Request: fold
Amino acid sequence: MNIQRIALLTSGGDAPGMNAAIRAVVRTAVFHKMEVWGIRRGYEGLIEGDMIPLQAQDVSNIIARGGTILKTARSKAFQTEEGRRNAFTQLQQRGIEGLILIGGDGTFRGAHAFFQEHQIPAIGLPGTIDNDLAGTDYTIGFDTAVNTAVEAIDKIRDTAEAHDRLFIVEVMGRDAGYIALHSGLACGAEDILIPEVETLLGQVVARICDDERRKKTVHIIVVSEGDDLKGGASALYEYIRHDFPQLDTRMCVLGHIQRGGSPTCADRILASRLGFAAVNALRAGKSQVMAGLVNDQVVFTPFDQAVKQQANLHRDMLQMIRVLAV
Ligand code: ATP
Reply:
């Protein structure tokens, strides 16, 4: 397909590696002598026509930078038919023939709605720290976020050990427990609480008491912010402090440090491979699919299927983590 003019945007929560993806998309498109427009602030900027032309040199020195040079936003207007119609008009006015969207599940939900109403070829790239998309083993930003969490939890363990403390650490993940599972496993956490698996307080407490009996003096519990206890780490902290005042308990919410920072090597490579593949997919006539990496191969998954979470091995992994923590 002879696409000459494309636009790209980053949308939803920012994720380290988005810049590496932008770089790969722009450089691949320039290689094919295509014109590239960068849309600022995601769907919000698309509706407002906030776009800038991008040349190869405009993406110099961004591969190692966190955040996104295009900025990102959450757009209420894009959730309306009128907003999406305005977005389409902006594309038509500039003769843009293809779109590349970098974002998470919400971004692809929006894309699915958009392309049911307005047919313009589009390819998605999984850019979210949450890793909650089907059609790719890992999302861009997840590896960096997990490594940031691991570094922080390792430090917390040092101080927890010095004082024989119970530490409750909250990591990001409103609906998905991947960051908690992976960082918890990598840090040797004693327990992990995630949204996908029901948290039974009685069992959490039983495990703490068991550790006490065995004179295990440090107990780290990693909690996803969206755990079904509602209230993340602070809910559990208040409960334990109230019912077990004899325990020296502390709490730490890692928060937005997990989104920032220079992307890891793995995220830069993933973003570069998928950005390159996305432009070539548009040229080959693919549309309304997300590019992902499965078993080290680039695969394409329709937008509506990419947003369905994989029925994953969370329970098995949790069991393993508890065995290893003994
Ligand atoms: P992250 O996983 O990092 O939060 P995300 O892409 O899931 O990223 P969202 O804020 O959920 O982030 O979605 C990005 C944007 O996609 C929303 O602000 C909204 O404009 C659009 N969007 C989400 N769901 C829909 C929908 N059902 N219809 C239309 N647009 C939608």
Q: What stands out?
A: The pocket of adenosine-5'-triphosphate is lined by residues 11-13, 43, 74-75, 78-79, 103-107, 109-110, 113, 128, 130 (CB under 6 Å). The chain has two domains: 5-141+263-308, 142-259.
